[in-house]
């Protein structure tokens, strides 16, 4: 996504401070923010106590001014020669960034090394961006070699590709600093300055009621066939424009920023092209973080569902898919923004519940005629209920199960679906639902904080 660049000159903060860090008041695409930068020009960007004070001031200023906090990091970590003072300073920076959480958007970019504390700052940010020549890790190659005996390079351990594809730290991977700044501008143009403000409305020429007849022929004839669910998201989005979040990580769930009739939204969709769209640990974490971010900054959620359930396996169960699957359920259940759900094809069992079902509190539940909303698919159900039946009888039972349960009209009769829609009207229906939900306001009961399943 793009927006027109409009950037006046920056206004420095702590201009006379020494060290490799600097902070200033800035604007990207006309959206005010507080920015900071740590460069590795001197001593690989080792953070002195004065640098920590500069970064802390930047975060504090962003919160006071109620504007986004944008950071560019190239640092080898706390300065060893400064001892505990440098470590204590980093702690104050982390505390100041956490204070911004859920109040103002935080977007940090790794433009070089980000080691130890600076690496953890990327983890604290709402959105982390990595340039191609950057790398980040908590413990470096020397420590890895000392403790494990494995010799490994910085890029192999925590290079941009690893941050984007393996660890999921980087939400976006870009070529260089200039591309990172362009992306920051695009992101800020979709977001409010703070949590008590609505996202900016975009001016678009794409009609809200534009038909999407191409979606009628999107699903393959076989229920086991695959397709790219991003085609659905693009058909619904204004001008087919998506800004995909963590596109290279947990690819079985697509998350993207978009606009629909000029309204910025967050889109989530099961991806049949990856693991058949089943849910696993990584995609549950990805989806939960994205839902929570959109909810914090008032972006309505549009969810496209096509999943046969959670991915089975001993390894996943032992690694805690119960806890991580609960993260996605928790994020949706806690969200107070407008929520539109569209079931495209399969929606089975526990995955049906956590993918923002009506029973998780969505506001508008739509379904295509091809939708199958049930505990499980016909074959699985027959193998459990009629496991002693012969093959011919099983086939008959499967057909009967499909006719009786695997259609959206049963769910509609029971109130789990509001309307069964023609795929050609998907954009129009979603846009109308979002327009209706624009005035939605929901007040949550007071509490110290949630106890999110981590």
Description:
- The structure is a single chain.
- This protein has about 450 residues and is α/β, with parallel strands linked by helices.
- It has 16 helices and 16 strands.
- The strands form two sheets. Strands 1, 2, 3, 4, 5, 6, 7 and 8 form an eight-stranded mixed β-sheet that branches. Strands 9, 10, 11, 12, 13, 14, 15 and 16 form an eight-stranded mixed β-sheet that branches.
- Helix 2 runs parallel beside helix 3 (about 115-125).
- It is globular.
- The two termini are about 30 Å apart.
Notable traits:
alpha/beta; 2-enoyl-CoA Hydratase, Chain A, domain 1; 2 domains; eight-stranded mixed β-sheet; 16 strands
**Radius of gyration, whole Å:** 24 Å
- Structural class call reads alpha/beta
Can you give the helix content as a percent range? 25-40%
Strand content: 15-25%
Total strands: the figure is 16
Biggest β-sheet strands, sense, barrel: 8 strands, mixed
| Overall 3D shape | globular
What's the domain count? 2
CATH topology of the largest domain, anyone? 2-enoyl-CoA Hydratase, Chain A, domain 1
CATH superfamily of the largest domain: 2-enoyl-CoA Hydratase, Chain A, domain 1
Instruction: Report the total helices.
Output: 16
Unreliable residue stretches? none
CATH architecture call of the largest domain: Alpha-Beta Complex
Distance between the termini: 32 Å
At the first level of CATH, the class of the largest domain is Alpha Beta
Q: Can you give the mean pLDDT?
A: 89
């Amino acid at each position: 996504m793009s927006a027109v660049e409009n950037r006046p000159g920056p206004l420095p903060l702590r201009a006379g401070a020494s060290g490799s860090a600097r902070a200033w008041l800035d604007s990207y695409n006309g959206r005010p923010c507080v920015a900071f930068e740590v460069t590795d020009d001197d001593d690989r960007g080792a953070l002195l106590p004065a640098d920590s004070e500069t970064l802390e001031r930047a975060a504090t200023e962003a919160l006071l001014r109620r504007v986004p906090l944008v950071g560019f990091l190239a640092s080898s970590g706390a300065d060893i020669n400064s001892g505990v003072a440098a470590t204590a300073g980093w702690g104050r920076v982390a505390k100041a960034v956490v204070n911004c959480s859920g109040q103002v958007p935080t977007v940090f970019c790794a433009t070089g090394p980000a080691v130890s504390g600076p690496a953890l700052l990327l983890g604290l940010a709402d959105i982390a961006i990595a340039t191609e020549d950057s790398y980040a890790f908590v413990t470096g190659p020397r420590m890895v070699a000392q403790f494990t005996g494995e010799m490994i390079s910085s890029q192999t351990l925590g290079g941009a590709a690893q941050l984007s594809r393996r660890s999921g730290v980087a939400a976006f991977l870009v070529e260089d600093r200039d591309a990172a700044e362009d992306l920051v501008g695009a992101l800020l143009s979709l977001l409010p300055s703070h949590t008590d403000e609505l996202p900016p409305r975009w001016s678009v020429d794409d009609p809200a009621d534009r038909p999407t007849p191409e979606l009628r022929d999107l699903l393959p004839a076989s229920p086991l066939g695959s397709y790219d669910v991003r085609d659905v998201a693009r058909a619904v989005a204004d001008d087919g424009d998506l800004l995909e979040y963590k596109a290279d990580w947990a690819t079985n769930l697509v998350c993207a920023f978009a606009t629909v009739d000029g309204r910025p939204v967050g889109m989530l969709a099961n991806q049949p092209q990856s693991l058949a769209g089943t849910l696993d640990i990584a995609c549950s974490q990805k989806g939960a973080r994205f839902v929570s971010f959109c909810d914090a900054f008032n972006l309505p959620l549009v969810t496209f569902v096509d999943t046969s359930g959670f991915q089975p396996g001993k390894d996943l169960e032992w690694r805690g898919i119960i806890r991580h699957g609960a993260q996605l359920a928790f994020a949706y259940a806690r969200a107070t923004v407008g929520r539109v759900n569209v079931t495209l094809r399969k929606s089975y069992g526990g995955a049906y519940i956590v993918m923002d079902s009506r029973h998780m509190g969505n506001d508008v539940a739509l379904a295509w005629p091809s939708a199958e909303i049930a505990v499980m698919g016909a074959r699985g159900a027959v193998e459990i209920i009629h496991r002693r039946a012969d093959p011919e009888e099983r086939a008959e039972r499967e057909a009967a199960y499909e006719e009786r349960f695997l259609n959206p009209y049963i769910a509609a009769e029971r109130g789990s679906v509001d309307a069964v829609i023609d795929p050609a009207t998907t954009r129009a229906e979603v846009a109308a639902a979002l327009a209706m939900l624009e005035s939605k306001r929901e007040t949550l009961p007071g509490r110290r904080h949630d106890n999110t399943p981590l």
